[in-house]
## 1
Amino acid sequence: MSNTVRQGSVHLSADVLVLGGGPAGTWAALTAAAKGVRVILADKGYCGSSGATAPSGTGVWYVQPDERLREEAKASRYQMGGQLAEHRWMNRVLERTYANMNRLGVSGYPFPLDEYGNQYRRSLQGPEYMKLMRKLVKKAGVKILDHSPALELLADEHGVAGASGVRVQGGETWSVLAGAVVIATGGCAFLSRALGCNVLTGDGYLLAAEAGASLSGMEFSNAYAICPTFSSITKTAYYSYASFYYEDGSVVEGAGSKRGRSVIARNLQAGRQVFAKLDQAPEDIRPLLRVGQTNFFLPFDRRGIDPFTEAFPVTLRLEGTVRGTGGIRITDEQCGTGVPGLYAAGDAATRELICGGFTGGGSHNAAWAMSSGSFAGEGAAAYAAALGSRAAQRTPSGLSTSPLAEGEVSRGAAVAAAEFTAAVQAEVKPYDINLFRTGEKLTSSLSRLDGLWKEQRGREITRTPEGVKAREAQAMTATARWMYNSALARTETRGMHKREDYKETDNGQHHRLITGGLDEVWTGREEVAKESVLL
Amino acid sequence: MIEVISAARCVECNQCVAVCPTNVFDRVEGGIPMIARQKDCQTCFMCELYCPVDALYVAPDSEGVAGVTEAELERSGLIGGYREKVGWGKGRQPVASHEYMIKLAARAGF
C-alpha cells in the first residue's frame, strides 16, 4: 500500500476498497483480506460505533443446520414479505450466518453460556460485536480510514476503480485506487434520529446509481419505529408488551407494535398524542428486558419514569430503508451490482432476497449484513485478484453528478444543504404520504422532489465536511425519488408497502420492482426466481 | 444530545473525539475536548460507552437541549450509568454474556 500525503490529500491504493464499517463492511473487509488481497475500509464515522447496529442489541437468524428447523425459519416471514424472498438466497444466508456466528464465538465474542456450558449464539450486543469486528479487521491487516466519507466513485471504461472523499477531522481529501469496491454504507433513514441512523443517508445508493447500478424494492422503504418522543431509542419489539392510551387514560383501540402501528400513526397525524406503557410485561420478564436492551431503559431511568407503570408519550420515527428492505440491486451470488468491480452488501443492498417486502425484528437484517458482506468481500477480492498488474495502470475519473471542487467552502453551503434536507424530510416523514400511500399524493410529492433534484444536481460541491452534507442531501433526494417512483408503480398492497387506493395484494404483481436513473428515474419489473413458490 | 463533558473527570484521552460517529467533538490542544457540533449529535450514547472515566453525559432527548449541569449529575449519580449497565470497564462482566439473554429469548422470542 503506497501512502503519500501532500498538499492536504491522501492517495492510497488497494485491491479492495470497502465503503462503510458496520457489520456488512467489516465482514466484507475480513473475508476479502482472508483471500490474501490488500484491503482498505473507509467509514463515514468510526468503524466500531457507526451505524444502526453498534448502539443496539439484535437477535440473529442463527438456525442449526437441521432441515426441519431451517424450513420453519424460512417460512416464518415468507408470507409477511409478500412472497418475494428466494429459497436459494435464504439457504445461503442461513448457512453463512451460522458459520459467521460460530466464528465470532471462537474469536472472543462473550456469548452467554447455557446450562450445558455451550455458547448461546442467537443474539449480539452491538457495542461488543462492533468493537470485536474492528479488532478482527485490524488484525487481518486491513487499513481503516475513520471519519472518511466517500464523495464519489472513480471509474474508467472497464468499471469501478476506487473512490475519493474527505477526511472530516483533518480536512484532507482522500482517494483510493482499487480493483473493486464494496458499498456497505447502510440504508437511508433521512436524518430522523432513529438510533444510530444519522450516518445512514443513502450515500451508497447515489454512488452506485452514478456508476450505472440499479436499485430494487425501493417501495419497501416506509419503516417507522415506535419511540418515546423524548428519545432516540427505536426498539419497536419491546412495545409488544405495551398498551396504548390517550392523554385522559382511555385505551387507543387497535393500537399495537405490529399491525396496530397504523392506528398510532393515524392518531398522531390527527394531532392526538398517543402514550404507551409496558404494562403487559409480566413481572418476571421485566428484569430480563432490562438486560436484553440496556439502552432501551436509559432514557426512562434518566427522566425518572418507570415505563412498566407510567405512561409516556410516543412517536413514530422513520427508519426508511434501514429497516425497510429496498436497496442496491444484486445481480449475482457474489453480491455484484452488474457494474464491473462494484459490489453491495448489508442495508445498502436490497434485502428482498431473504425478506421480500417486509422485515420484522433485526434477526434477518443482522444475518443479511454478515452474509452479504462476506459474499461481497469474497467476490470483490476474486475480481480484484483477476485484474492482476493491469489494475495499477488505470487512471479513472470521478462519477459525481455534481462537479466536485477543491478549496474553501462557500458561505451559505451548509445552510443550503440543511434546507434541501428539510425539504426532503417534509416529503418522506409524513405518515399521510409515505405510510398511507396514494397515487395522488405520491405524484404530487414526486413533482416537488424532482424539483429539488434539479436544483441540486448542477451545484458545485466542495471536497469539505460541508460538501459531505450537500452530497447527503442529494443522496436523500435521489433515494426519495426512487422510493416514490417504485411506490407509484406498485399498484397494490404487499409487504410493508401499503396503498390506500389499492388495498389488496394483486397476484399479477408478484415480481420485484427495480428502479434507477438520476435526472430521469425509471422503473421496471424483475421476476422472482421460480423455486420460491415451492415454499 | 451530548450535554456535559466533566472537566473534573476528563483525562483528555480524546476517545470521544475518535469514536463519535457524527463528529460532534473537537480536540483541543492542552485541554479537554469541546462539544463543537451539538446539533449533529444523534443521541446514540457511544461516546459515554467509550469514555474510560465516565466524564460524558448524553441526555436522552434527541431533538432538543435539556440544559443539564455537571453539578446536577454528580448529585443524581446518573453519569456513567450506561457503561456500567453494558458491563464495560475494569472488573465488570459484559452484559453480552449475561444469562438473562438466554432466558429472555426463551420467554419472549427476542
## 2
Amino acid sequence: MDSQPPLPEMHQPPPSASAAVIDDAAYFRQNEARRLTDLVTSSQSRPLHVHSIRIDGITHTRSTLVEQLVSPILQSETLGDVIAESREACQRLNRLGVFRDVAVTLDTPPRGVEAGGAAGVGRELVDVVLTVKEGPRFYARTGADFSNYDTTTNITTKISNALGGGEYLEANASYAVQPGVALNESAAAFASETGSYFQLLASKPLLPTPRFRRANRADPEARIEVAAYNTNRNAQLHQSHDEQTKGLAVRYKTADPYYGNHEFAYDVAWRHLHNIAADASGSIRKDAGHTLKSALSHSFTRDHRDDPMLPTQGTYVRVREELAGLGGDVQFAKGEAEGQYIRNLGHGFTLSSTLRAGLLMPLPNSTKPIRVNDRFVLGGPNSVRGFAQSGVGPVDKKDSLGGTAYYALGLSLFAPLPRLADKPIKAHFFANAGSLLPSTISTSTTIATPTPTTPATQFSTLLSSPPSVSAGVGLAVRFSILRLELNYCLPLVARAGDRMAGGLQFGVGVSYM
Amino acid sequence: MPWVNPSTKLQNALPLKTHPAVFVPAAWPAEPAGVPILYIFPPSKQAITSVDAECVKYQAFLAFSNYKHTIQECHEPGMSPSGQLPFLIASDGRILTGRQIVEEVKNTAGDLESRLTDVERADLTSFTLLAETKLDFALLFTLWYDNRIRDTVTFPMYEALYPWPLNKILSRQIRAEKTEWMLSRKSVLKRDEILSDAKQALAALSTLLGSQLFFFGSKASFLDAVVFSYLHVILSQLALPGADVPLREAVMRHDNLVQYCRRVFNTFFALT
Amino acid sequence: MSALDNPGDAAAFELFTWGPAYNLPSFDPFCLASIAYLQWSEVRWMVNECNNAAVSPRGELPMLRDGLLEPVVGTAKIIAHLKKKGHDLDQHLSATQVAECLAYTSLVEEKLYEALLFSWWLEAQNVMKSTRPTIAKSLRGWAGMRIPTQLQQKAEARLKKYRKVAYKGKETNEIYVLAREWYAALANKLGNQQYFFGDRPSSLDAVVFGHLALHCIPSLAEPTLFSILTFEFPTLHAYCDRLRTELFTAPLRQSPNHRPSYILTDMLRSPLTYARSLLDKLSGSVTVPAKEMKPKERRDQLVTIGSTVGAIAVFLGYVFYNGIVEIDTGEWQDGEKHNEE
C-alpha cells in the first residue's frame, strides 16, 4: 500500500478561527490548501474504506455516546463518503455543546494490516482520528441589565456535561429592583412588570441515531428538559396585584433552522395572586387567591428573517397553543399566532407587516372563571404603539383587565437616513391597530363565570368591534442584542377607557409589531 | 400670550374618534338596589353561620342591628383589603373590614350601645377583649393542634377548597401561619395553660351574664356578638362523636352560656 | 411600707426582674406589676435585678423564688402563688368584680402592652433616642447590645397588623386610636375611686400601675402615650403618680445574690450559662418558641433538617468528586490561564 501517495491531512477549523494576516508564507499556504482541496474534490469517488476510528481527548463524555455519533463513518465506501461523514460527525459533536474543539485527521493504518473483505485485494484503508477538546464544565455568569427604568441583576450557573452525555444543569436567578415610585409620567407609562425569577433546569439532548449518507438536517436535534421555577411578578402598576408562581415543567424541544423549532411542554404551576392594592377594582379583587394550573402546550417558531433585530427580508411565524385542565382548577384552551412578512424594497427601504391574533376559550362544561393572569394584554411600545403598556382593552377603574380574544396589525416602513445609510439606524414610519375583547363577565356579583360562546362567535364579535388605531414616525436603532425605538405617536382612534401614550414613546426589546 | 407646546396641542386634538368602551364593569354591589354584601368564609352544609368565628361575629352583629344586607361566600382572605375575612361592601362601593364594619353599621342602622353607661361601656370593651384573646387563642389551638379535630374538622374544611395537591400544601401553610401568629403573642404554647386561661375567661363571662337575656340587659351589643360567635363555633364545630374535646366540655359546664348560645341562634339564625 | 432590712433572712421571697429605668424599679411592665403587688401585700421580699432571662426555667422574667420551692414565672402565676400563700389582695372582691378584674387585667396585659410596644419599638425616633439607650444602660455589658434588637424584632412581628388610619384629620397609626378607647375604658371604670374596686388595692391595681407607669414617661423622644394620658385622661395620670409615691417611698430591698453582669465575669463564672445565653436566639420577656412538640413532629423536623443537609452534602460531594470545581493548590504556570487563540 506504500505506492499510494500519502493522503492529505484534513483539519476542521474551530468556529472561532481568526482571519489570517496576508503575507508571503500565508499566501503559499493558501495556494497549497487550494491545490489540496481541488485534489480531494476530483478524487471524490475513489474507493476508500475506514479501518478504524480513534477518538482522543475524551475525559468526561460517555465514550459510547461519541462512538454512536461517529459510527456512520465506518460505513464509508469512497473518499467522498469519508469526508462527508466526517464533516457530519463533527457537526453532531459540536451540536452536543460539550466540546470546545473538534478536529479530524485521516491517517494510514499501521503496517501489516491487510485489506480484507468481500472486495478482495486492493481495498484502500484509512484510519480516522478525531481529536476533541472538552469545554469547561462549570460556567457562571453574573450581570446587570438596565431596561425600562429598573435594574435587573441576574446570575446563571451551569454545569455542562453533567452525566457525560451532553446534559446540563443550569440554575439562574434574576432580581429586578424597581424604584419605589415611577420617575415621571412617561416612565410609568411604559415601565413593565418587575419581580424576581429563579429557575433550576436539567436538560438532556435526545440524539437521533445517525444514519449513513443522511444529512443531519433531516433529523433535527431534540432536547428534553425538566425545570423547576419560582417567579415573583409585580404587576401593581397596571393590574394592582402581585403574582407568585411556583411550578414544574417538562419540555421536549426540537430545533431545525429551516423547518422551525417545536416545543411540547407539560407544566404544573401554583399561582398566588396577592397584595391586592387598596384602590384596586372589584374585577381584580375577585381574582385574588391560589390556583393550580396543569397544562399541556405546544409552540412552533420559524424565523427566516435575515436579522431578528432589524430585519430587511424574510418571514417569521410563531404559533402557540395551550390546553389547561388536566387536574388543577384552571380550565381553558388558548391559541395565539403571529406572522411577520418583511420585504426589501431596495435602496435600504424595508416594508414590514405583522399580524397577531389570539383566542382564549373556557372548556365546554367548565364553570371555572378565567383569571386575569391568564388573559391576553395588548398595547405598549412592543405591540400597539401610541398606547400605554396594556393600555388597549377592558379597563376597570385604573386596572387593565386583559381580554380573551384579540387581533393586532402592524405596518412599518423603514427608510435609511441621509448620510447614515450604512449605519444600523433607520427612520421608521408605522401604523398599528389592535382590538382586545373582554371575557364575557356576567353581571352577578360572584366571581366572573364565562357564558358559553363558540370560537366563531368570538371572532365575528372581534372583527366587528372597532379597533384602536395609531400611527407615527420615529427612529429605530439596532444593537446586537436588542432594538431601540423612539417614536412620535398619534393615537388616531381609541375606545373609551384606553390609556393613550401619545407623543414620544421609547421602546426597548427584541420583538416588535 | 403664553406659548403652548404644539405637541400638546396636537395630542389634545387626538384621538380623532373615540368609540364606546369595550367593557363596562358591573357595579359592585349590584345595581339597582345597592344592598351591602358581607363576604364570609363558607359555612358548613345547610348552615347559615360561617365556620370561622370572626365571620360569625360580624354576621351576628349585623343581625342584632337589623342591618339589611346579603351574604356571599368567599374562601379567599386575600380578597379583603386587610387580608382577613369577613369584609363588607357598603352600598356606595367602599370595602370595609373589622372596626370599620362596626362603625358603618352604627352610622346606618343605629347604635345598639347608645343607652349604656360609661362603666358598662368600659366593661363592654374589656370583656370583648377578654373573649377575643383568651377564647380565640384556645379555639385556634384546638383547631390546629388537637389531632382529632385537626384531622376531622380543620383540614377537610380547607382541603375542600382547592384542587389536589395544592390543598395539602395550603392547609399546612395556613397552619404554619397560625402557629407563627400564636407564638408572637405567647412565648410558649402549653395546652394546659391555654385551656385554664379559657376556663377562667368562660367563668368570668358566665358570671357577668348571670341570668340575663343579653350581657347588658335586654338588648344585644357587640359583646354578645363576640361571645356568641366563639360559643357557637366551639359548640357546633368541635362536636365529635365519642370522645369529648376539653374546650367544648369547659363550655358545656356553664349552663347559662349554653342556653344563651342556643337562644341567640334560634332567635336570629334559625331557618323559619 | 417596704420590707425592713433584716440581714440574713433567707425566708424572704426573691423576685428576679429586669433592671431599672425612668426612675422606676424595672423597665418591664410585668416585672413592675409583680413588684407593686409584693409591695402592697407587705411580705418580706427582695428584688434581684438580674437582667438575665436565662436564670428562669422558661426563659422569662419576672420570676419569684420562694425558699427552696420551684420558682414561679410570670406575673399571673406569681400573683396566684402569693394568693395561695395567704397574701390575697382580692379577698374583698365579689364574684362579678373577680370577673371584671380578669377582664381588665387581660385588657391591660394584652392590648395596652401592645400600645407600649408600639411606642417603644416601632416609632423610629423613640427607638433610636430613648428606648435603646435606656435599656442598654440598664442591662449593661453584652446583653445591652443584643437584647434590644431581639425585642424590637418580636415587637415588629406582633404589631404588623396595625395600619395607618386617619384620625381627626391627621394620619396616625390605628393603635393610638384604639389606645384611647382602652384608656377610656380604664378611666370610666376607675371613675373617682381611690382604687379600681373601692378603697383597697387589688391585683388589678398592681397590673394597671405596672403598665401605665411606663406609659407616663415624658422624656421619650415622641411621648405620644404620655400626651394622650395627660391631656385626655388626667384621672389615670393622677392615679399613676399617686401610686408611684405610695409604693416607692423607700428604696427596695436588694437581694444579696445580685451581681452585676459583665462580659468577662459572666464568662468566667459560668461558661455554660454564658454560652447558652449566646446561643439563645431570643431571650428576656420574649423567649425561644419552644412550643410543645409531639415526638412525631420532632422526628419530622429532624428528618427534614437531616435530608436537607444530606442533599447539600451530596451535591457538593458530587461537584468536587467529578472535578467540576477544582480547588487548585498548584502554582500559577505562566501563561496557562490565558485563552488560547
## 3
Amino acid sequence: MKSKTLVMGVIGADIHSVGNKILEYALKQAGFNVVNLGVMVSQEEYIKAAIETDADAILVSSLYGHAEIDCRGLREKCDEAGLEKVSLYIGGNLVVGKQPFKEVEEKFKKMGFCRVCPPGTPPEVAIRDLKKDLGAE
Amino acid sequence: MDNVLLIDFGSTYTKVTAVDINSERILGTARACTTSKTDINEGLNNALADLEGNIGKIEYNSKFACSSAAGGLKMVVIGIVPELTVEAAKLTALSAGAKVIGVYSYELTDDEANEIANLKPDIVLLTGGTDGGNKNIILHNAEILASIESDFPVVVAGNKSVASKVAEILKSAGKEVRVCQNVMPEFNKLNIEPARQTIRDIFLQRIIRAKGLTKVQNIIEGILMPTPSAVLKAVQILSTGYGTEKGLGDLMAIDVGGATTDVYSISDGLPSRSGVIIKGLPEPFAKRTVEGDLGVRYSADFIVEEAGVKMVCQASGLTLEEVQSYLNKIRSNPGILPNDDNKIGMLDLGLAKIVVKEAVKRHTGVIETSYTPMGKIFIQKGKDLTGIRKVIGTGGPVINSLYPGEIMKGVLFDEREPEILRPINADFFIDRKYILSAMGLLSEKYPEIAVRIMKRELEMV
Ligand code: B12
C-alpha cells in the first residue's frame, strides 16, 4: 500500500522547534511520507502544501499557548480548498496554564480536529493513532 | 588562426562579435537591424558587412548564435498552487530564457483554454503535484490542453505517478509531448534543470524552424539558444569561473531594454544575519527574472504613470514640459538614440534609473519583522542579496548612457525600503561592447576563454 502523506508544522508565531524535529524523525522512521513545514507556519501554508502533495492528514503543533486563536477556521478553510478528506491532528501545550485536558480536547474537537494530543504525547502514541485512523497497516 | 563568430539575433538588432581564440581577444563587434519579417539573413549580412569594414575579411572556424527575434521564446506555464508548482514552473521557463506570457494555477477553465489558444505559446510547460502528490488537477489540465486546437508542444514536468497518463491524453489529441522529471519532486524542492534542458531541445528542433531561423542554420553549425539563456550562462560562468580561471564570486547583472528589463543573480541568497526564518520556495542559485512592463522606450508611458511625472523629472533633471515633449518624441520614434539629442539621453537616464530600481526590487527577497510573545522575529522570503559586491550593467540604455554609474545606483540598498534585501555596497561593471550574450555562446565551447575575456572587457565605473 502507498505510504500516507502527512503535512506537519508548528503553527502561528511559535518557534519551539525541538518537538517538531523529533516528531518528524519518528514519523519518517515509521514509514510515513512527511512534509515538514517547520516553525511559524500559517494556516495557508498547511493548506497549500496539502493540496500539492495530496496529503492524508495535517499535524499541527502548538507549544506557546495560543493554539486556539491560531487554529480558528482552519477546518473550514481546508474544506473550502477541497481538502474535506484531510484529517486534522493537534498536539503540544495547547492552552496557557493548567486547564483540565478534557475541556481542552472538547474545544479543539469542536474546531474540527479529529485527535487532540495532551502535552508530552510521545511519538509512538501519535504513530499508533495515525496508523489506525488512516488505515496505513 | 582560430576565429569564432558569435551572433545574437535580437528583437531590434542583430549583433555580431568576432573573437580570436588564440590571442583571446575580441576582434570587433557590429550590428544591424534585425530582419525577421523578411529574411533574417539580410540583417545578419548587413551586420557582417559592417564588421568586415572595421576589421577586414576573415575566415571563421565556427559560428554560434542565439536569438530573441520574432517575439523570443513564448511560454505558458501551468501548475497547481501559485506559490508552489506554478512558481517552480515559472522559474524553470525563465531560466530557459523564455518570455512567460501566461501563468495558470489549479484546474484550467474553458475560458482559460480559449485564452491559451489566443496567446499562441511556442511551448506549454505543464506541472502539478509533487511526486506521489496531487494527481487529479494535472490530469484535468491535460484534458483541457488536449481540447485546444492550436499546435504547441507540451513539456510535462509534474507528478511522476501520472506523467505517462498525462502524456497519453495529450498525444492522443495530436500534441507533441515531452515528459521529464518533476520541477518540484518533493515539497519545496526545486528541480528545474531537466525541464530547462527539454525546453532548450524543443527550441532547437522546432522553434527555430517556426521562426524562420532555419535559413541561418545552414551557415551556423553551432548551437542556437534563446538570448536570455546565453546571458544567464555568461553571468553564471563569470561568477563561478572555469578550470584554472577563477570567477568573480556572487554577482548580479541587469539588462535594461526598450520594452523589458532582465535581472540575474548568481548567489544562494541565504540570510546574512542569524536568527532569520526562511519561508517560501527556495530560489535557484542562478536566478533570472524579467519585467515585461519595465523598459525605457515601449514601456515609458507606463513608468511615468506608475512612478509619477515628478519622479521622472527628478531622476532625469528635465522640466515637466521637457519630459512631456520628449515622451512624445520617443513614442513616435522608439528607435531614436541619445546622440541625436542630449535631452533624449537625459530622459533615458531618468527612466533607466527608475526601471533599475524597480526591477531589482522585484527580483530581490524581502525580510519581514514579525512580533511574537518573545519579541521580534525575522522572516525572509526570496534571496538576501545584501552581500553582493559586483553588479554588471548591460543593455542599450545603460551602455550608451553618459552616466551608467548613476543608473546602476538603483540596484543598491535603500534605507527608505529596508525590507528589500538589495546589495548594500557594490562595484558596477559595464558591458561596454555588449558582449554578454556572445560570451554565453562562446562558453559552450571555450568556457575558460569566455571568463577571461569578460574579466578583461567589463569596465568598472
Ligand atoms: C525549550 C523551550 C523554549 C525555547 C525554544 C527553543 C527552540 N528552538 O525550540 C525558547 C527559549 C526559544 C522558548 C521560548 C518561549 N517559550 Co518556551 N519552552 C521551552 C521548553 C522548556 C521545552 C520545549 C521543548 O523543546 N520540549 C521538548 C519537545 C520534545 O517536546 P514538545 O515540544 O512538547 O513536543 C513533543 C510532544 O508534545 C509531541 N507533539 C508536539 N506537537 C504535536 C502534534 C501532534 C499532532 C502530536 C500527535 C504530537 C505532538 O511530540 C513532540 C515530540 O515528542 C518548554 C517547557 C517544557 N518542558 O515543555 C517551554 C514552554 C513550551 N515555553 C513556554 C513559553 C511561554 C515560551 C515563551 C512565550 C516565553 C517567553 N515569554 O519568552 C517563548 C515563546 C517564543 C515563541 N515565539 O514561540 C511555555 C508555554 C506555556 C503554555 N503553552 O501554556 C512552556 C510550556 C514553559 C512553561 N511551562 O511556561 N521556549
